[in-house]
């Protein structure tokens, strides 16, 4: 008698892990790092809350939504949990300052924190139930772990080459996983939540060329994951085995036409769960631009150390041409040609514009993306001398080369294998410094210090409502 081997159930195995997850499983250094990652996300949310595109979105939802239980960061208002998740996510993603994952590009904080903040306040309003800091920390870790694994199952950075906005595709599952963990769902309930979250996943990478929608796409995923979880809480059934179903399954559909063999890798969903922590591959940004532009900035910074006169308006006259050589995924994502005028979104996504900004201004931070900076003649003079080209043999997202040819014939060249913030990662102390620098222009110092102290002692806090009360009052626009 021939006995067939049992078919693997990757979705169900992942759901069981989520349902049984405990903070006790997590090494202390990972827990500590998670608190600093959360602090970075909060800084990005405070900076992003009053940006022009954030204000447009917020005012639209204030006009359409009734008051609710969930805090809108920086606006001294509350809306429904779903609206709050959408807006707060768009704030965190609002200025390309937030985290990214080195192997499966998504912005975890913009997915997880808005989901858990909104859900925690919803539980307080409807059930009188407090959410502790330890519960928030635990649920955040679940989302930080699940999101990248979903991405790796779709070949990580490669999905950018197919035109999908990777984090918006991976993100609904990450949001639902974290919310399911906070609600202490059974494995079956988690599966329902993931099944409904995954059928809402989407995100067109064409949003990067200038639309405000780029800022909100992770917000769609956060909202959708939270909605799926609230439905599952009421017994609403989702798609079973959603990841590996051969007809209409998540991995099958989002890998269609990707040219990979195999097209998708379902084993990545559960590979080394609880042994290797994907949270360690969450990268924190030192620059206010798309992650794929960061190696370009690093290359130019290294060249400027060798040739300090290649910074400022005088550098324009010295430069004959600039070549930026990118791996295929990075080229497809940020190597596009640009033309004047350009919107902030397109500027921050463009390797060419970011390179010119670093050359002329010596910095790539929020101040460099004010409207007058987007129209700077020196920057556009360098843009006109700059071109990106793909390194056809390279699949790397981070390995890049910049070659600057001067008018005197001298050629300056630098290559990096990974970006600062990835390898080497920003240390916890550097993240604390980044927090201080970012929020200095948008909130008062005492409030900033109280937020930081709360987050860095998160596992000792009895109620996250105190944190939300600190995040709620008004903030300033950092580029006004």
TrEMBL record:
Domain MmgE/PrpD C-terminal: 287-459
GO molecular function: lyase activity
Domain MmgE/PrpD N-terminal: 13-259
Pfam families: MmgE_PrpD_C (PF19305), MmgE_PrpD_N (PF03972)
InterPro entries, per the entry: MmgE/PrpD_sf, MmgE/PrpD_sf_1, MmgE_PrpD, MmgE_PrpD_C, MmgE_PrpD_N
PANTHER family xrefs: 2-METHYLCITRATE DEHYDRATASE, 2-METHYLCITRATE DEHYDRATASE-RELATED
Family statement: Belongs to the PrpD family.
Protein name in UniProt: Uncharacterized protein
Organism: Gomphillus americanus
Organism taxonomic ancestry: Eukaryota, Fungi, Dikarya, Ascomycota, Pezizomycotina
């Amino acid at each position: 008698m021939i006995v067939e081997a049992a078919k693997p159930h990757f979705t169900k195995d992942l759901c069981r892990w989520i349902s049984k997850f405990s903070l006790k499983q997590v090494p202390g250094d990972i827990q500590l790092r998670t608190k600093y990652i959360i602090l970075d996300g909060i800084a990005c949310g405070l900076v992003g809350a009053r940006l022009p595109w954030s204000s447009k979105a917020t005012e639209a939802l204030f006009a359409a939504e009734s008051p609710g239980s969930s805090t809108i960061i920086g606006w001294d208002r509350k809306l429904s949990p779903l609206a709050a998740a959408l807006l707060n996510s768009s704030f965190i993603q609002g200025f390309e300052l937030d985290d990214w994952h080195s192997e499966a590009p998504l912005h975890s904080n913009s997915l997880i924190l808005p989901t858990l903040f909104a859900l925690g306040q919803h539980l307080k309003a409807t059930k009188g139930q407090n959410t502790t800091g330890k519960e928030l920390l635990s649920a955040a870790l679940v989302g930080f772990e699940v999101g990248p694994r979903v991405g790796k199952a779709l070949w990580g950075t490669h999905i950018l080459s197919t035109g999908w906005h990777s984090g918006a595709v991976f993100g609904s599952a990450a949001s639902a996983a974290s919310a399911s963990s906070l609600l202490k769902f059974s494995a079956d309930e988690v599966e329902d939540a993931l099944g409904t979250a995954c059928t809402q996943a989407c995100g067109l990478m064409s949003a990067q060329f200038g639309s405000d929608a780029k800022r909100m796409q992770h917000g769609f995923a956060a909202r959708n994951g939270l909605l799926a979880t609230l439905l599952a809480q009421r017994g609403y059934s989702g798609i079973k085995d959603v990841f590996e179903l051969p007809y209409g399954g998540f991995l099958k559909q989002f890998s269609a036409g990707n040219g990979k063999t195999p097209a998708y890798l379902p084993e990545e969903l559960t590979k080394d769960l609880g042994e290797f922590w994907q949270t360690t591959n969450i990268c924190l940004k030192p620059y206010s631009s798309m992650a794929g532009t960061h190696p370009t900035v690093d290359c130019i910074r290294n060249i400027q150390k060798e040739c300090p006169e290649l910074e400022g308006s005088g550098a324009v006259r010295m430069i004959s041409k600039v070549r930026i050589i990118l791996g295929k995924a990075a080229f497809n994502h940020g190597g596009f040609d640009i033309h004047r005028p350009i919107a902030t979104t397109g500027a921050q996504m463009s390797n060419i514009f970011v390179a010119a900004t670093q050359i002329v201004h010596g910095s790539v931070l929020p101040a460099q993306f004010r409207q007058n900076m987007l129209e700077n003649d020196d920057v556009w003079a360098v843009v006109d001398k700059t071109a990106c080209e793909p390194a056809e043999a390279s699949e790397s997202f981070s390995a890049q080369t910049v070659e600057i040819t001067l008018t005197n014939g001298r050629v300056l060249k630098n290559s990096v294998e990974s970006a600062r913030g990835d390898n080497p990662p920003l240390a916890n102390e550097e993240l604390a410094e980044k927090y201080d620098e970012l929020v200095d222009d948008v909130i008062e110092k005492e409030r900033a210090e109280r937020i930081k102290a709360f987050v860095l002692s998160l596992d000792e806090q009895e109620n996250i409502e105190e944190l939300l009360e600190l995040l709620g009052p008004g903030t300033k626009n950092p580029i006004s």
